[in-house]
Amino acid sequence: MISERITELLNEQLNKEFYSAYLYLSMANYFSQAGLHGFRNWCTIQAKEEAEHGMIIFEFLNNYDAKYKFKTIAQPDTEFKTTLEAMELAYSHEKSVTNSIHCIKSMADEQKDYITSMFMDWYIQEQFEEEHILRNIIDKLKFCIDNKIILMLLDKELNKREHKKIEYKF
Ligand code: OFO
To answer: Quick one: which atom of ligand 1 is closest to the CA of 50?
Structure first.
């Protein structure tokens, strides 16, 4: 049985994952207008992954027949001054997502809810990777300031990203 508190935290997390998808779509739209199609590609694929993260939580809660009310998905930022600013915002958002996942893990451990605790391990690993990738892009972007050629090379690199559907086994 899953507790009401854990159900609520997972429901909030589900909302955050779909908000993440919205945020990356908003960034993709910004990059599209800026002519940075590699960045647009990277963000669009990231948005798909985020929606999948949300769906995995949805399936997890459904496996428990948990009852919860869906929350409103907040409007993401739509104005970004620079490519660096947009990616830094994504990085700071991911750090807050990591924090909320850690809170669920701690609460699950406290309640001896070992299934949810184990479930969160996948998300912890995923957040670790996401933060690492974003930091990497940000580091490269810092070299690009005033250097459009390097920016174009980075854009080309990000254009290679392909979507791989996440297979999560319960
Ligand atoms: Fe779902 O990993 Fe980012 O937010």
So the answer is: 1
Is any ligand 1 atom within 6 A of the Cβ of residue 54? no
Dist. CA 140–CA 152, nearest whole Å: 12
Which residues form the domain of 22?
4-158
Q: Which atom of ligand 1 is nearest to the CA of 127?
A: 2
> 126: Cβ below 6 Å to ligand 1?
yes
Q: pLDDT tens, 33-80? A: 999 999 999 999 999 999 999 999 999 999 999 999 999 999 999 999
What is the CATH classification number for the domain harbouring 122?
1.20.1260.10
Shortest CA distance to 6 belongs to which of 92, 87, 113? Answer: 113
- Closest ligand 1 atom to Cα of 17: 1
User: Helices marked H in the chain — which ranges?
Assistant: 4-34, 37-63, 83-110, 114-144, 148-158
pTM of the model: 0.96
Q: Judge whether 163 lies within some domain.
A: no
Residue 120 placed within a domain: yes
Domain membership of residue 65 (yes or no) is yes
**Ligand 1 within 6 A of CB of 155:** no
